[in-house]
Amino acid sequence: MSGQEPPIAGAIEIRISEIAQLFNSLDPFPFRERDLDVAAEEFIVSWARELPTDQPIRIVVHLPERQALTSEAQELGPAITRYFSQRAQATALELRELFRIGHRALVIGLTVLTLSVVASQMVAMSLALGPITRVIEESLIIFGWVANWKPIEIFLYEWWPIVRRRNLYRRLARAEVELRSFTVD
Fold this sequence. Notes:
Helix content: 55-70%
Largest sheet: 3 strands, parallel
Number of helices: 5
Oligomer: single chain
């Protein structure tokens, strides 16, 4: 390849001088099982977020001809697929853990709410009606609802970003990885 090729529409393009640039150099595992370098992962993920979700992802790795001929280059696609599959699995476990925490918080919250409502009713029946009694009743009810803040937050909002991240990692795990070599002048 001579000169600079135009960018490929709908693809994540990476230009490297050595395959090792894509992987964590401190990772002791064999090449195919290594983690991606943090900067490489952030680059790929940030570009993947920009791509349409209804289209498959392509990752095009531009590397020197001498690097393209190595055995590591042939393992690049499976290594990237394995890495993002593992990230998707880890994110799915994170989601499962969040829901487990949410369920526990919900049980605690509903128990506290029930006890707060009962205590509020007992205060209303045992104390003379007046502003202080009303403040105590309302405070107990508010306390019961505040105890449900965390499970409500988890089940309404916190899980969405995790699901989006998991789905993005799954899409990246299915990405077609293409190698393009270039000559070094």
